[in-house]
From TrEMBL:
Chain ranges passing through the membrane: none
Gene source species: Rhodopirellula halodulae
Protein name: AMP nucleosidase
The EC number(s) this enzyme carries: 3.2.2.4
InterPro entries: LOG_fam, LOG_family_nucleotidases
Catalytic activity: AMP + H2O = D-ribose 5-phosphate + adenine
Domain of life: Bacteria
Length: 240
């Protein structure tokens, strides 16, 4: 389509209509990308996103341990963010809601064909139509990520954060993988991607996720990071 300042497109011209729509959508994405470059200069609250399975039931070890971890983070003064659904997301929100004076319990949900209602322990909800915009909000609003055991969705979220840390779109953000399912993933990545003949990644990339065996080890990592975060926040408040 040869476009001029006063050019118009006939609704009967399907090819030109597709081109106009394509250009308009790309233009909108450019606007969105520019807006997401903006960051608050100071944030008052430290926020931890907890990813994990929607299938784990209350009363199981995984549920109770995730709830305990979130409650300990809330006691530190950390807000807890999850996908807002059932399973370990609910466990984390339940743990956060045990200390409402010190922590917010946040859910960032997505529309699914099999509808998942927001769990009852969320006190602030955000709704998304796509996984892509939802993941973007996790990135924009989180200071650390803890990954509990989970399925394909949890793996997707984990690899997305890992990749953003690899290319430095995220910096100085802990990615802590809890439980015995994750070392196998890291070992697979090392074996498959660090071939001396044709490496597909660097050894430093494999050091980005921190695998720990239990919640107490994850809490220790987050606590140390939060202390440095608070120091940085305090220093920024003293600057003109």
């Amino acid at each position: 389509m040869s476009e001029t300042k006063d050019s118009t497109v006939s609704l009967a011209d399907e090819d030109d209509i597709k081109e106009v729509l394509s250009e308009a959508v790309l233009g909108l994405w450019d606007v969105v990308n520019r807006l997401t470059r903006l960051r608050p200069s100071k944030r008052d609250r430290y926020r931890v996103t907890i990813f994990g399975s929607a299938r784990v039931q209350p009363g199981t070890f995984g549920y109770d341990e995730t709830k305990r971890c979130a409650a300990a983070l809330a006691e530190m003064g950390c807000d807890i963010i999850t996908g807002g659904g059932p399973g370990l997301m609910q466990a984390a929100n339940e743990g956060a809601s045990s200390n409402p004076e010190r922590a917010q319990s946040i859910g960032i949900r997505v529309d699914l064909p099999f509808e998942q209602e927001i769990n009852s322990f969320v006190n602030q909800t955000f709704e998304h139509r796509t996984f892509f915009t939802r993941l973007h909000q996790f990135v924009l609003t989180s200071d650390a990520f803890i990954v509990a055991p989970g399925g394909i969705g949890t793996v997707l979220e984990t690899l997305m954060i890992w990749q953003l840390l690899q290319v430095h779109h995220l910096n100085n953000t802990p990615l802590v993988l809890v439980g015995n399912m994750w070392p196998g993933l890291i070992e697979w990545a090392k074996t498959s991607m660090l071939s001396p003949d044709s490496p597909l990644a660097s050894e430093q990339d494999m050091e980005i996720p921190q695998c720990v065996s239990n919640s107490d080890e994850a809490l220790a990592i987050i606590e140390q990071h939060r202390i440095k975060w608070l120091e940085n926040q305090s220093a920024s408040k003293t600057q003109p």
